[in-house]
Each structure stands twice: as structure tokens, then as C-alpha cells.
Amino acid sequence: MATTIAFDAELLGRYDKPGPRYTSYPTAPAFHADFNAAQLRHHALRSNQELIPRPLSIYVHVPFCFSPCFYCGCNRVITRDTSRAAPYLLRLAREIELIAPWYARDREVLQVHLGGGTPNFLKPEQVYELMESLRRNFHLTHLPQRDFSIELDPRFLNVGDIASYAAIGFTRASFGVQDFDPVVQKAVNREQTVEQTLNAITACRDSGFRSVNVDLIYGLPKQNLVGFANSLDTVLDARPDRVAVYGYAHMPQVFKAQTQIKDADLPDAGTKLALLQLAIEKLTAAGYQHIGMDHFALPDDDLSVAQAAGHLHRNFMGYTTHAECDLIGLGVSAISHVGDSFSQNPRELPGWELAIDRGQAPVWRGLELSADDRVRAEVIQQLMCNAAVDIATIERRHDVDFWNYFAASRPRLQELSEDGLVEFSEARIAATSRGRLLLRIIAMCFDNYLDHQNAPAARPRYSRVI
Amino acid sequence: MSPISRNPIADDGDELHFCSTCAFSAACMEHGFDKSRLNELHVLVAHVGPFAEGEHIFREGDPFEAIAAVRAGTVKTYVTDSEGREQVQGFFLPGEVIGLNAISSSKYPCNAVALDSVMLCRFSFPGIAALAAKLPGLQQHLFRLLSQDIGKAALLAGNYTADERLAAFLVSLSRRYAARGFSPTRFRLTMTRTDIANYLRLASESVSRGFRRLQDLHLVEVDRREIELLDLPKLEAMASSILRS
């Protein structure tokens, strides 16, 4: 993808409306409670019967956090009581034992990701036990190119533990920074020093982690250009392999913690856009590739390499190099994508615990993809990963006459084309350099679950696209 | 408009016309017997189905009454050994006939199960046998079907490598689809990996490793249960020791 991105504040402002992030299609709000554990099992068994069954990718959710960051929209439980980890891990081990037998043993696990919450709420010995439990029940790959990653909160991290995580097998670490500006940190209740962060990154490098990821957020309360510029410079000096720059999604009706953030403290739309522009300019000037949406990576990182080779994929963990995997989500609220199904575990601890204590695979909701879902999912996947759709590929793989099938999408694309966001011909749809920041808007043209006549603004299910 | 199914489905016949995949139409037409004529002779029993995926069409030991031509879908035949292990005998595609191995006895000697949505055309066996006595072309056709059925099982008994077995399996499917007017290079395998492994006398893992090898050699491209044969001549060469004809 090009390293320069044309930026047009007027245009971006006009298109700043709510929209899905397309970490899946159909998106999670389309999941329904009729989908149960028996159906997930059916899809898992079926996925073993493909001619070359897909390798596996495992996500484990650790919901506990020591303190609440006010911007957070993740599913988490705030506690300082570390004794809560042990019973959670016991049930995770049970969940692994319940689900693993559904998958053929010759299916290698190429990717493991521990997310949260705060995975380092667990002690290294506990993380080790969890990985051992996965190793006993699944065939975790020994390949050096394995992608085993862990999210770490530098504020609660014993830097000495990082070598232990490397020894357990992790190859990539992800750190939340958001912003180093002390005023912003206070406003979001996340006070984290530069020193803590840089020490952690250095320890990862020294311990042999292959890749380090840093998350930043723009649009936070009290955020300004000077402070964010300093934060970016500090982060870029440490030269993490990947940087994610997320837009803050203010939805206090949905995420209770966000009610702690005063509307008056939020930067206005103009400032928000300027913050994003600043981040993009600094990152691209520093040699980072814009992978798509909110992700940037150094040219030699796996993500950049995968994108160049056309192997990039987007899922609930963001962008990944493992397009071909079936995804198994473990733990409270985790999402799975197995065969032609999506499914999600209960969002609250009691529901998840109850299912496991009854010896049932915990499935709260999900859906089976229809043939129509599958075509649209691939179009959206191509847009999010390559900023383009190759029409012949879609026609060949799905036996459709593309422009006939997507006749309703054409006028929507035409509108975006007139605004210079997208170019399309009989053979190809491609986001322009301006459109690359608005991939969600382009993808929405193909979303059959959106009410295209009435903007979904009334229901705050999705955050604004910028 | 919904995506077109890649599963071959026969054009439906009617009172006067045979289905496009009919196993017997060519042999009957050769003698000037059209469908109405066969009806008069009470040879055609009925179009039956659809049978859903996993539904049994007949079971081992059921009384034998009729042979059936597959109109759409895939049928698997299998027996279970004394330890309850399944042995896959064959897969039957549109235009192919199931039940032929029952004609020497009064009971079906195997189970037949639908692998996807299956439509059949059942023929009264006494009826078609009587007709075959009058029509030498039909009789020859029946004999040919019978010998093919016996030949199939013998094919894989030899000492062949996994790659040879897989290539022979794919080439055989390709020829059979081509004979009915479907694409010889791109089709969906409705049988599971386990079934293919069982039929080819291989482990499931070996089947997948084999497909991966063929894919790495750019001979095939696999997408879940779908396959495209990229180099049919090379696959035919690999299969040649098994498929001598």
C-alpha cells in the first residue's frame, strides 16, 4: 500500500458517521442466540473434513484488570484480587478439554493470542500452565514462524517476567500506550510512564521476541496536537515493529466506564482529524507501511510481508497473517470463526462459568454464514486488507456475475466515486489514497445487514468511522 | 440472485424426455424406445427423493427390488466389518447406477447413504432385465455397468502410493463428470476427508498431505471441499498405473 495518504479534512468530516469496523462479516450484532454449542460442534467436525483442513488459531481472553481505563470498550472485570485468576484458569482448562476433541489432531495451531483485559494479571507460572494445557490438547506448532502473542500492561509488569514469557513460547508482545501526555493519562485513568514502557520494549527485544506492537489512541479527552506529537516521537524512537492508532469510540450508553469521560473534554472533530493526520504523517515519514484502517508496520514485519504477498487477513484480533486458519475463541466473551460459522461465548463471567460447570461448551450466540454472507465477507475482506477488490477472483470463487449480483451496491459506490474515495471498473474496485482512511465506508456499500435507506445513527451499535 | 451451486444437477426430464444424466437413455433411444414406451413396459418405477445429507437410501439386508440411477447428488455405499468399522465401497455420481451388486441375491449387500441432497430414478430390476433381453444395446449397457462396478473395487487393491491413489481418484471423478457434461476440471467433493481416506485405504492425514503436495506442485487448487484440476495431463500420468484404460 502507498506510504503517502492524501488527507482531506472536509471530506473525512462529512463521512464521519457510525459504521462497523469489519473485524468480521456479518458483524457481531447479527449473531443470534439460537446458535448453540451443538451447532458449533457440527461446524468444527465438518471443518475437519475439508480436503486440506485449515490450521488453527487460538484466542484466549483474560478478562481481569487491576484498574479501569475509562476509554475501554473491552469486556473486563476490575479487581486487585489476584486469587481470582486460579478458578478462571481451572475453567479455561475445562473449556479446552471440552472443545479440543472436536478438532482433528493433524490440524496445527499456528497462532495463539492472549488478550484481555490484562493477560499479565496472571503470573508467568499461570500463563505457563495455560499454555501447557493448550499443548496437551492441541497440536501447537514448533515452527519458528509461529505467531504466539500476548498483550502486556507495562504498569503492572515485572520486567523480569518478560524472559519467562519468551521461554513459554511467545514471539510477539503488544503494549497499550494510548498517549504519554500526563494530562490525558489522568483523564482516562491510565498513568503509565515512558520509562515503564520503554523498559518493557527493551526487555522484549533482549528476550528474543520477534515483534513488538504498540497501541495508540487518538480522540481521547484533553488530547492535543503538541502532547500527541511528543508521544508519537517517543514511540517512534523505540521503533516498535507495529503501531496501531485507534480512534476513540465514545459510546457511554454501551460502555459504562466511558461515563467517567466528560463530553466537554473530548477534542472536537477538527482536532480529532488533525491528531489522526499527525499520526499518519509521522508514521509514514518514519518508514512505516500503512497496512489498512488503523494499522502500521515496519516493511520487514510479518504483516507488511504478508500484505505484499496478498496473504493478509482481518479478524477479531485485527490484521493477521493467518488467512487460512479457523479461529477458536476461549474464555469469557471470546469469538470463534470455525468453518462457515461465527460464535461467541457468554459476555459475562457467571454465564460462562455456569456452562462450563455443567460440562457444556459455552456458546452464547452466533450464526451460520449463508452463501450470500460468504460472497460479501470476501469482498469486504479484500477491501479491508488490500484496499481493492479483484472482481474476477470473486466471480470465479463464488460463481456470480459480480455487477449483476451487486447491482444495489453500484449507486452507493458511484456516490463515493464522485467524492474521490473509490475508483471502479468492470474488473476492479480500488480505494483512492483519500479513500484508504475510509475503508469502512466503502465496505458498508456491500453490507447486507445495514439499513441503507435509514442511517443506523439511532442505534449506537457502531462507533463513528473516524 | 443467489450464487450458483457447483453441484451438478440433472436437467429434469418429463413424461416424454429423459433426464440429461439418465444412465439408460442412450441405450434405450438407440433402439427407438423413448420414455413413454418404457412407461408402457412398466420399467420406470419412479423418481424418488430428495434424500437429505446422511439419509440412508437402503441398508445392508434390505430386500432388493430395484436398481436406481442417481439424478443429482452423490451416494456413498459402504459395509461395516465385524468390529463395526466402516468400509467405503464406492461413490456414485449423477448418471451412475446403485444397487447393481444386489442383482445376484434377493437382498442389498451394502448400505447406501446420501452425501448431499440426492435425487434418484428407480428402475424395476425384473422390468429392465426383461427389456434388456429384447434390446441388445441395453443388455450390453447393463453388462458394462456391472463390470465397471466390479472393476472399481479391484482398482485400489494394488500396491500404490498415496499420490497415485489420489491422482487416480481425481482423474476418475473428472472423467465421470465430463461424461455427463459437467466440468472435468472443477468440482466439489461431497465426500468427507474420512470417506476419501477410507475408500483409498489411506489415513486421513495422508489424504490431506497428499492434496497439499499436489497443490504445492501446482497440479490442483483446493478451497475447502472444492477442487480445481490445474494440470489434468500430469494427474493422468500419475494415475496411469491404476487407471490403465
Fold topology:
The complex is a heterodimer of chains A (466) and B (245).
Chain A: H1 9-14, H2 37-47, E1 56-62, E2 64-65, E3 77-78, H3 85-99, E4 108-116, H4 124-137, E5 139-140, E6 147-152, H5 161-168, E7 172-178, H6 182-187, H7 194-207, E8 211-218, H8 225-238, E9 242-247, H9 269-285, E10 289-292, E11 295-297, H10 302-309, E12 313-315, E13 318-320, E14 326-330, E15 335-338, E16 341-344, H11 349-357, E17 365-368, H12 371-386, E18 388-390, H13 391-398, H14 402-405, H15 409-418, E19 422-424, E20 428-431, H16 439-444
Parallel strand pairs in A: 1-4, 1-14, 2-3, 4-5, 4-6, 6-7, 7-8, 8-9
Antiparallel strand pairs in A: 9-11, 10-11, 12-13, 15-16, 16-17, 18-20, 19-20
Helix pairs in contact in A: 3-4, 4-5, 5-7, 8-9
Chain B: H1 25-30, H2 35-40, E1 44-51, E2 56-58, E3 66-72, E4 75-80, E5 86-92, E6 97-98, E7 111-114, E8 118-124, H3 125-134, H4 136-155, H5 162-179, E9 186-188, H6 193-200, H7 204-216, E10 220-223, E11 226-229, H8 232-239
Antiparallel strand pairs in B: 1-8, 2-7, 3-6, 3-8, 4-5, 4-7, 9-11, 10-11
Helix pairs in contact in B: 3-4, 5-8, 6-7
Overview of the molecule:
The complex is a heterodimer of chains A (466) and B (245). Helices cover 36% and strands 19% of the residues of chain A. With 466 residues, chain A is α/β, with parallel strands linked by helices. The two termini of chain A are 20 Å apart. Chain B has two domains: 25-155, Jelly Rolls (Sandwich), CATH 2.60.120; 162-239, Arc Repressor Mutant, subunit A. In chain B, strands 1-8-3-6 form a four-stranded antiparallel β-sheet. In chain B, a hairpin with a 5-residue loop joins strand 4 and strand 5 (86-92). Mean pLDDT of chain B is 82; it is low at 1-7. Chain A binds chain B through residues 48-53, 104, 106, 371-372, 374-375, 397-400, 404-405, and chain B through 1-4, 6, 189, 192-194, 196, 204-205, 207-208, 211-212, 215, 222-225, 227.
